[in-house]
Design brief:
Glycosyltransferase; two-stranded antiparallel sheet; two-stranded antiparallel ribbon
């Protein structure tokens, strides 16, 4: 019988043989490799971020049959003599695949306190469509999250508006100053605002700020805003530059920039997101994300922020974005559409022209031939001797006519142009349809720019019906959603931004909408 020592030695020798075996070593290596791969795959699945599917942003005119219970906005505009009318229906020729459309500060106020935050207006509002009986109900609210923007936020070269100019406001003709402080209240009272409309603006800004994502963006589908399905009617468009820009415009319109204002951090984060999305190309700085619509609105935001602050950090990005607009123009027709060089449509074209006008007034050089091309495009879609406009061909649809007439003002038409007066009068005569937010957004600007005699009556009705349609309960409190086929794919985010912008028209008065901007067009 072997001794204990012999048994131990024999076992030791057997273990050494097993360990030294190539088969065993291969098995060890396989096990270790698979364990490491499993760990890596687990980490990848945890940290992977869902990227939005690439999908072009389409903000055009939609076929009316695809929107249930929407307003009938396909009427032909009755303007002037009939000898120069479009076809009997007056409808633009639209391909079936052309779909309609168009930060959380750390001290976020409760919606119940918004009424006290709005500038004081001494005159009582017209209560025809007032919302005095609407109550702000308690509902779920997202948690405010502050994110520091990793960029220099102090202006280089000084502020755009010296102290002596910044106090004068839009009433005295100083661009952008009427958005701030006391001048905001003076301009609102003088141009047709009301206490109810100003309170609605503040509620709308609070909702927009609450729905900013952690990365500084906004999304039409409300993804990433911690909403968690509490808001209905999300949009379907995918361009984050378009959604972020359209959400930023109301904050700029109310006087907040990345350097000052109640929503300074909100604007700062949003601007940083836009700048992070700009792609350097031989054409210039590309902010499209699939559509020139997004690029035009984003460029308008950069131009406004530059004009309001004089921050030199924004000058080069704004100049590059302007260059991209100019090099993306359809050289033959003179317009813009979804892709650079495409034959234009009136909605995309007008956003590009608006951005160029604002950039020029912020000190960024723009090209006169570019504006000449835009005039050529407007001629190609005009009817009734320039009083009405179609989408891509001559027609007299109300929404595209409002857009075209305002674009004519951007490109040089003065208030004494007979087709301009005739067209605006015809559009305003029936009064504003409650849910036609896109048409009313443009027509309000045209009416107030021309100081049209019908403005007080038209504005009173439009203002009060917008206020009355604002949601006042639950998580959606402060937002809007309209049965408007032109902007349906933008969802609640786009509708809220457009509603706030329309209610800000009294003091927002961007240089592109001011009289001197209109008459000084290149």
């Amino acid at each position: 019988m072997p001794s204990a020592g012999a048994l131990e030695a024999s076992a030791s020798t057997w273990i050494e043989r097993v360990v030294a075996s190539p088969v065993s070593r291969s098995a060890y290596a396989s096990v270790v490799t698979h364990v490491l791969l499993g760990i890596l795959l687990a980490l990848a699945s945890v940290t992977a971020q869902r990227a939005p599917a690439p999908r072009p942003l389409i903000l055009a005119l939609e076929d009316g049959d695809t929107v249930a219970d929407g307003p009938e906005d396909t009427d032909t505009v009755e303007i002037g003599a009939a000898d120069d009318r479009a076809t009997a229906g007056g409808e633009p020729e639209i391909a079936p695949d052309e779909v309609a459309s168009t930060g959380v500060p750390t001290d976020m106020p409760d919606l119940e306190s918004i009424d006290d935050a709005a500038p004081v207006l001494e005159e009582a509002p017209d209560t025809t469509l007032a919302d005095a009986n609407l109550v702000v109900a308690d509902g779920p609210r997202a948690t405010a999250v502050a994110v520091k923007v990793p960029t220099e936020t102090k202006p280089r070269g000084g502020a755009a508006l010296p102290a002596d100019r910044a106090t004068k406001g839009g009433v005295s003709g100083v661009p952008y100053a009427s958005r701030r402080g006391e001048e905001r209240g003076l301009a609102a009272r003088g141009k047709g605002g009301s206490p109810a409309s100003e309170a609605a603006v503040e509620r709308g800004l609070a909702w927009l700020a609450l729905h900013q994502a952690n990365d500084g963006s906004w999304r039409f589908d409300l993804d990433g805003c911690r909403c968690e399905g509490a808001c209905r009617d999300p949009g379907t468009l995918s361009s984050t530059t378009a959604s972020t820009a359209i959400a930023l415009l109301p904050f700029l319109g109310a006087g907040s920039t990345h350097l000052e204002g109640r929503y300074q951090e909100t604007v700062s984060r949003g601007l940083y997101y836009l700048l992070s999305r700009m792609q350097s190309t031989p054409r210039g700085g590309d902010l499209c994300e699939g559509t020139m619509y997004g690029h035009g609105i984003a460029t308008l935001v950069l131009a406004e922020a530059l004009g309001m602050t004089g921050d030199d950090l924004l000058r080069k990005p704004c100049r590059e974005a302007v260059r991209f607009i100019e090099t993306s123009q359809d050289l033959h027709g003179g317009g813009w559409r979804y892709l650079p060089g495409q034959a234009g449509d009136i909605t995309v074209t007008t956003w590009q022209v608006a951005a160029l006008r604002s950039a020029g007034l912020a000190g960024v050089e723009t090209s006169s031939p570019t504006f000449e091309g835009a005039r050529r495009f407007l001629d190609s879609v005009a009817t009734q001797k320039g009083a009405a406009y179609g989408y891509r061909t001559p027609a007299a649809a109300p929404c595209t006519s409002a857009i075209g007439l305002l674009c004519r003002m951007y490109t040089g038409w003065g208030v004494d142009e007979e087709p301009l007066e005739r067209g605006i009068t015809a559009l305003a005569r029936p009064g504003p349809k409650p849910h036609a937010i896109y048409q009313n957004f443009y027509l309000a600007q045209a009416l107030i720019q021309t100081d049209h005699p019908v403005w007080p009556r038209w504005n009173s009705r439009n203002r009060d019906q917008i206020v009355a349609l604002q949601t006042r309960a639950g998580h959606e409190a402060g937002s809007w959603f309209f049965a408007d086929r032109e902007t349906a794919p933008g969802g609640r985010l786009a509708h809220t931004a457009l509603a706030v912008l329309t209610l800000e028209v009294y003091y927002r008065l961007l240089p592109i909408y001011r009289q001197e901007a209109v008459t000084d067009a290149p």
